[in-house]
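Lecture notes, structural biology module. Today: joint structure prediction for complexes of two components.
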Amino acid sequence: MSVGLLAPAALAALAALLLPLLLHLYRRRQPPRLVDFAALRWLQGPQRPRRRVELRDRRLLATRLLLVALGALLLAQPEFRDQRAGKPWVAVSPGVDTGALAIDGDAEWRWLAPGFPPLEQTVDRAQPLASLIRQLDATLPPATALSLVVPERIDGLDGGALVLSRAVDWRVVPMEHTPAPPPGAALRVALEIDEGHPGKRYLDAVVAAWRANPGAADVFVVELDDPTSVPAELDALVWLRESQPPPALREWAKRGGALLRIDDAPVDADAAVLWRSTLGTASLRLVDGERRLDCGFALHCLPELHDAAFPALLRSWLADTPMPPARAFAAQVAPTTAAFDWTLPSRSLDAWLVVLIALLFGLERWLAGGRRP
Amino acid sequence: MADLADAGLLLDPALRARLADLVIRSRRTPSATRLGQQASRSRGAGLEFAQYRGYEPGDEPRQIDWKLYARSDRLFVREAERESPLSLWLLLDASASMGQADAARPGWTRLHAARQLAACCIELALRQGDAFGVSAIGDAQATVPPAAGSRQRDRCLLALRDVVAAGRWPAAETMAPLLQRIPADALVLWLSDAFDADAEAQVLRLAQAGREVMVVQILTAEERDFPFTGPHRFRDPETGELWDGDGASVRSGFLARFDAARRAQAARMAAAGVRRVEHFIDQPADAPLRTLFGASATGAR
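The predicted structure, tokenised, for the full assembly:
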């Protein structure tokens, strides 16, 4: 438990402490009270008034100095950091069977989910685990012990390594369930190709490549019986025809379907660019929700056609989001420790200070009441 | 009547009741007693209907009854009744120092206390049927020559009401005509702070010239206690002299010197046969009068 200052430079306002001191010193030089006194001739002694600070003034001066000091402290924004250790925390990854865990009352058991709810609540299985782990490390007091219970294969990681500010107990439990499939798998693609289109052979080659390596691409090619109606499970459609796509397909594209049009129709040069060729001759742009390649399947403007990775490139044109490296073996991604200086959340002490200043001001007015300025 | 009350000239009933047992008595001659209403024949030696009273310092030795002394081994003085008019002459100091009041009671100055004392004495004299007169001496001089009766009382009260404390006590030459008007057997009551040495000298000369003089020295509570703390600027109201000082540090010195000065003054007055009593303006008015005129008044200072 410690008290700190958010803006320590504001303590320079303590220089204002000089003001009450000067005021109280200056007060001594004011002319004294005039009294008619007929027995004056028997008054003798040192004519100069003795410089003696009255006790009443001292209390008032002390109150005013304290008031100025507290005002400077308020400007420096004091805060209260609770750094007590407290109970050790155990965070459980959603999807782990809590029945198999030995839950005791000595520790704080929570889900690794936003808000870190207690185990009594149910949470979604898909959670951004890496981000939550880092958040927990940053918000807990440094002295609190942290344990993490994770399944053998965890999802929800991001590209960064787990580096925390404390040593955590990384408990890996055997997996009893299948994890939720990561987004972006098993793309369902339909192809609308003119029979005589010059780019058909390239597309056929791509489809053949996808079918040859199902694990790498995870693409299902479906047959579209009726081009005017879009089945619900369709994720993407490749339009390689001379004619325009029917309105139903264009509506579907506007709603978010991935419609890839490869034709020679001119594309608005101001549209958003999704992909640009390395030579700068071709680009994939987003126009009205449709992904338009402004160059047909021709080698002179799209040299990537002869690239061995062209199937993956075409698949990326059709996919919504790239697959992050979200899944890994838990044993391989155990967090490491590095020295961090998290800025712990702190409670502002401003309200208390304002109340204290108000009380002191009342006291100062009461002490100063009835006195000459 | 409100202005009379403001000036301290109206006596409240409680004060009036306390004055009931006071009697103005002159001890100049044993033969001077309450007069004006009781006719009596003069007596010489060998008095028959004399009454005896104990010897008081200041009585003339020829009045002592030596036969009684031989019998009782105590000194007694014959007091015979003789019609001799007593005239009470109230001499009021109206100089600027009389305008000083206490901070605790700003409207009650020394002059107010003096006027109240004068009103009490007038009341006593009126009750006794004696003659009384008033002189207020300051920048201006106002005199009401002695006479008896309630109309005289009204004249005196009105004259007192109009007195303002200002200026200084005049020099001896200026005062001489007034002082000589005071009859030889009058009882002079000087109501003043008695700070002015010149005024004191004049009054003592009055006593030496044969008149009976009593002094009520009117002082403020601040002069008795000196309650000032902190830096003050003191001003003499008559000379205008200023003195700056810290109250607490000069207090003991002032009290010592002031006390010494008053004791010296008391000695001078006793040597001249003048009876003196101190009166502080926060005390009731009958206190000094009781000392001077009460039943236990023995003439001691």
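Point to remember: Chain A touches chain B at residues 31-50, 52, 54 (CB under 8 Å).
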